[in-house]
Amino acid sequence: MAYEAPRVDWDAAVSTLPIQPVAFDGLFGWFSPGIGRRGVVLCGTLGYEQLSAHRPWRILAERVAATGCATLSFDYPGTGDSADEGGDSVDGWVRSIRRAIRFLREEAQAEEIVLVGLRLGGTLAALAAEGERVDRLVLLAPFASGRAYLREMKMQSRTIGRMPDGSPLPQQDGCLTVGGFHIGSSLAADLSTIDLASVAQAPASEILLIGGEAGGLGPRFTALGAEVTTRPFPGLAALVANPLYAETPDEAFSAVLAGLGDGLQPRPAAFRQPVGAAIEGAGWREEPLRFGPSLFGILCRPREAEPQRPMVLFVNAGTNVHSGWGRQTTSLARGLARDGFLSLRMDLRGIGDSPDRPDGASPLYSLDPLDDVRAALDHLETVRIGPVVIVGSCSGAHLAFQAVCREPRLKGALLINPYCFDWNPADDVDGVIRNVFRNASTYADLLRRGAVWGRLVRGEIRVGAIARALAKAGFARVAKRITPLFRARPPGGTVAQRIADLRRRGAHLDLVYSRDDRGLAALHENLGRSPAAIARRLGGPVTMIDGADHDLSTVAAQARLAEVLKDVVRRLL
Asked: Is residue 447's pLDDT more than 70?
């Protein structure tokens, strides 16, 4: 007699099982127990590509969970919110995938396992599947080899995180920096050994390759006896190329979801909810939080906290998730904890792991996120009494300045490369961000370079187009100086007046800039050009970091920022 599954109200059951934070063996992740025997592990890519793909990847996790499958998406060791130990190692990453498989088998009683891997995560998933009884493998644009991955990262390093003059970010010997993430010589050598085309057996009996035509993996896996299906991957570039403009590739994700819920058998035993999502490391302990209107954040505590010590609130830079560009916010938070300071790194609505804004719009340079900051301060008051410093970079620096001027609970703010102090509502945020390098000084700098001059002589650069751009930029510069004369002043008066008010109430404002950063124009416009005069108004000098891009991608720039932040916090002791 054929087995007939019990009748289950799938929609009602799944709706009560959203993905929730979870921690296991030092790995942080998002988990839904599902209602059936099939478990899906989502293996994201790494570095800058995952920073870009973070929010769409979370959307995929929610859609997978909605099929009724047990679902687990997690951060590899040394990435995101996971512990630092075991990172920068292919073996460590592969072992973490295998640990995630065991987690679903043990905690969700999953009997069937599906691995879904994006880019390098797909490569790692194929390696992890060996010996793990994986029933299905879904690989989204995987790299056939580690050398192919390194070649692409080298190409990306020339276009991501450019210097203020538009030149590529200088690379340190023995270290490749891509969007603030660092690939050292040891890791590069480790990656170079990966070659999926040389595997002796198929990693799974059923394999879906989405955008995986390169490297000949389809024919190779087919020859090894796997049933291989291929699909195109429209929207790959929009997913992984830029955190500001990352888009969900619905067609590719629909291919991932196809059939996941088909034939799903109910779980044979009652589900036991895993206990706790805290992660600990040397001198720190972290726990995930929901506060305010379902905002998400990570509270990082020192192991031995003293009462009434200063606390730090990190807000998003651009649309980067709370771990930050190059994971530097996670590193800063844990460094502070080792020195005895508590911090909260949060996601504003519309960013990272927080819900969308009600209007679906971007939170960048809007004043609406001030409500999110207040919700974070409300929560911190329930954790500990003490002064709070807000830290933000770029658009986050704009928000931090607006917040410290309005919120008396903030006793200081550290602004890192603020593009402006007040946003002109008449300016289009998207247009400014996309064209921020296209200004007269940039074109003039290019014209002064010998190589560019040679291209002009050979007719490879259109002089007319540059002239028109210069004319437009010149007009825009004049308009920019005239427009403020007719614009209503922000509440609190000029930037200088608000800074003076801050100092009178005992709050500190500290500024950090990359040398020649484009945001210095706003500093000079509001506080003057003389370093001495600026220091008098701020109550201290502006910190300039040489050899750094706007996002402080280099190891040295990130280390210098950590020093400055600790000095800012210690000043409040």
From this structure: no
Q: Judge contact between 567 and 540, C-beta under 8 A.
A: no
Q: Quote the DSSP letter at residue 78.
A: T
Q: Considering the entire predicted model, what is its pTM?
A: 0.88
Q: What is the pLDDT of residue 267?
A: 79
Strand order through the sheet with 206-210: 20-24, 27-32, 70-74, 38-43, 112-118, 136-140, 206-210, 227-231
Interior/surface letters 37-74, b for 16+ CB within 10 angstroms, e for the rest: bbbbbbbbbbbbbbbbbbbbbbebbebbbbbbbbbbbb
DSSP annotation string for 232-252: --TTHHHHHS-GGG----HHH
3-state secondary structure of 482: helix
Q: Which residue has the tokens 């998933």?
A: 125
Element containing residue 38 per DSSP (H, E)? strand 38-43
DSSP 138: E
Residue length of the chain: 573
Token digits of residue 242: 């830029």
Look-up of token digits 């291209």: 455
Centre a 10 Å sphere on the Cβ of residue 330 and count the other Cβ atoms it contains. Answer: 25
Please, which residues have CB within 8 angstroms of residue 191's CB and are 6 or more apart in sequence? 90, 146, 147, 149, 150, 183
For 127, the 3-state DSSP assignment is helix
**Contact in structure between 124 and 194 (CB atoms under 8 Å):** no
- Exposed/middle/buried for residue 283 (C-beta within 10 Å: 0-12, 13-18, 19+): middle
Paired with 29 in beta bridges are 22, 74
In one-letter notation, the amino acid at residue 552 is: L
Task: Answer for the pair 432, 318: CB distance below 8 angstroms, yes or no.
Answer: no
DSSP for 433-480, please give it: HHTTT-SHHHHHHHHTSHHHHHHHHTT-S-HHHHHHHHHHHHHHHHHH
Could you tell me which residues are beta bridge partners of residue 416? 393, 512
Q: Which residue has the tokens 């002109």?
A: 424
Integer CA distances (angstroms), 263 to 38, 113, 258, 268, in order: 10, 14, 12, 15
| Three-class SS state of 403 | helix
> What is the per-residue pLDDT for 100?
98
Which residue from 273, 301, 305 is spatially nearest to 287, judged by alpha carbons? Answer: 301
What are 511's strand-pairing partners?
A: 415
Question: What mean pLDDT is reported for the chain?
Answer: 87
CA angle at 484 for the pair 479 and 487, rounded to the nearest 5°: 120
Cα–Cα distance measured from residue 437 to residue 167, given in angstroms and rounded to the nearest whole number: 11
How far CA 69 is from CA of 41, 108, 111, 336, in Å, comes to 10, 10, 11, 39
Name the amino acid, one letter, at 232.
P
Contacts of 455 (CB under 8 A, 6+ apart): 461
* Structure-token pair, residue 467: 């002239």
CA-to-CA distance for 492 and 403, rounded, in angstroms? 12
Specify the 3-state DSSP secondary structure of 314.
strand
pLDDT digits (tens, 9 = 90+) for 33-66: 999 999 999 999 999 999 999 999 999 999 999 9
Q: What is the DSSP string of 363-387?
A: -TT-STTHHHHHHHHHHHHHH--S-
Q: Are strands 70-74 and 27-32 parallel, antiparallel or unpaired?
A: antiparallel
289: which strand partners?
297
